[in-house]
TrEMBL record:
<dbReference type="GO" id="GO:0002098">
    <property type="term" value="P:tRNA wobble uridine modification"/>
</dbReference>
<comment type="subunit">
    <text>Homodimer. Heterotetramer of two MnmE and two MnmG subunits.</text>
</comment>
<protein>
    <submittedName>
        <fullName>tRNA uridine 5-carboxymethylaminomethyl modification enzyme</fullName>
    </submittedName>
</protein>
<dbReference type="GO" id="GO:0005829">
    <property type="term" value="C:cytosol"/>
</dbReference>
<dbReference type="InterPro" id="IPR040131">
    <property type="entry name" value="MnmG_N"/>
</dbReference>
<keyword id="KW-0819">tRNA processing</keyword>
<keyword id="KW-0274">FAD</keyword>
<keyword id="KW-0520">NAD</keyword>
<feature type="domain" description="MnmG N-terminal">
    <location>
        <begin position="9"/>
        <end position="343"/>
    </location>
</feature>
<dbReference type="GO" id="GO:0030488">
    <property type="term" value="P:tRNA methylation"/>
</dbReference>
<dbReference type="Pfam" id="PF01134">
    <property type="entry name" value="GIDA"/>
</dbReference>
<dbReference type="GO" id="GO:0050660">
    <property type="term" value="F:flavin adenine dinucleotide binding"/>
</dbReference>
<keyword id="KW-0285">Flavoprotein</keyword>
<dbReference type="InterPro" id="IPR036188">
    <property type="entry name" value="FAD/NAD-bd_sf"/>
</dbReference>
<dbReference type="InterPro" id="IPR002218">
    <property type="entry name" value="MnmG-rel"/>
</dbReference>
Length: 343
């Protein structure tokens, strides 16, 4: 099937943070825009932590807001905890961090792109981009569709030849449970693009009722929080607590004994580390076993029954992750609902 699209001045591939902002910016400038994504139900998905902001990144969210972007407003509409950090330091290094309701944030972003004038959405998988003699871009999909436009924004995140690693096991996936894009990568190479592989890991999630919260430190929200967008007004909503556990010498001993099973520390590493979020394996190798690391138990949402264990991203095998997590005070009987993995 052929679908000529002379009316689309811009086509955006991918509907994560970057893709949504690109599509909204294009449409708000008056350009007829098409947003293509493999799954309309995962628009604005937060695949790792539902925490947004913090050092450096909090400033970026506010810069996006200053440029007319949507992220800060979506955060302010869906946060369940807001805290400003580094208050004991100067104003230049203070930073705002929000924990959002994961499902509410994605739904909020989806509603905004769906309702945006000049912007259309389509669920499909892009396999190839071609360029004709006039410089027009031809986008071919797995469903044998063809779209023609002058401008293409590729915002595919971890999906280009993405692989997920669980210890020594790996599967082709952009995120856990979602297929990767293989053909588009090769198509972009043929157009002269080169690629470097990065690596990142995410932390496990645990069943909330399996955690002994009574022995953990409570991290309370700011009672009257600052917000990310200059357009937002504090609405007095109820916020949720997070909780803090700690790794210990036994945790680190378990990790050190299992390093041979970590794909992130293999003889032939997956790629260059993203740097800002080292795995527990990397931290233990760097600091040894005689230290303590804070682990933040973050609720996934107001109605969710899971905690994300922020601070212990890992790609170790699931049995090792279970030993590692259960070695911490308060988590001795916890059940992992979603294992950590590397991508």
């Amino acid at each position: 099937m052929r679908r000529d699209s002379p009316g689309f001045q811009v086509i955006v591939i991918g509907a994560g943070h970057a893709g949504c902002e690109a599509a909204l910016a294009s449409a708000r400038m008056g350009c007829q825009t098409l947003l293509l994504t493999m799954n309309l139900d995962t628009i604005g998905l937060l695949p790792c932590s539902a925490s947004i902001g913090g050092p450096g990144r909090g400033q970026l969210v506010r810069e996006i807001d200053a440029l007319g972007g949507e992220m800060a407003k979506a955060v302010d509409d869906t946060y369940i905890q807001m805290r400003e950090g580094n208050l004991n330091k100067g104003p230049g290094v203070r930073t705002l961090r929000a924990l959002v309701d994961r499902r509410a944030y994605g739904l909020r972003m989806k509603q905004r792109v769906e309702g945006q004038e000049n912007l259309q959405l389509r669920q499909t998988m892009v396999d190839e981009i071609g360029v004709d003699e006039r410089g027009r871009k031809h986008i071919y999909t797995r469903l044998q569709e063809e779209f023609v436009t002058e401008n293409v924004v590729v915002a595919t995140g971890t999906f280009l030849e993405g692989r997920n690693f669980f210890g020594s096991m790996s599967i082709a996936a952009g995120r856990h449970g979602e297929i990767s894009s293989e053909r588009l990568t090769e198509s972009l190479r043929k157009l002269g693009n080169s690629f470097a592989r990065a690596k990142k890991a995410t932390a496990p999630k645990v069943k909330a009722e399996s955690v002994d919260l009574g022995v953990l430190e409570i991290q309370e929200p700011d009672p009257t929080p600052s917000l990310f967008s200059h357009d937002s007004v504090y609405d007095g909503r109820e916020q949720l607590n997070c909780f803090i556990a700690h790794t210990n010498e036994n945790t680190h001993r378990i990790v050190l004994a299992s390093l041979a099973h970590s794909p992130l520390l293999a003889t032939e590493p997956l790629g260059k580390s993203s740097g800002h979020c080292p795995t527990l394996e990397e931290m233990v190798v760097r600091h040894g076993k005689e230290w303590q690391h804070r682990v933040f138990l973050q609720p996934e949402g107001r109605a969710a029954q899971e905690f994300h264990l922020q601070g212990v991203p890992t790609a170790l095998p699931l049995p090792v992750q279970e030993q590692m997590v259960r070695s911490m005070k308060g988590l001795e009987g916890c059940e992992i609902t979603t294992p950590g993995y590397a991508v």
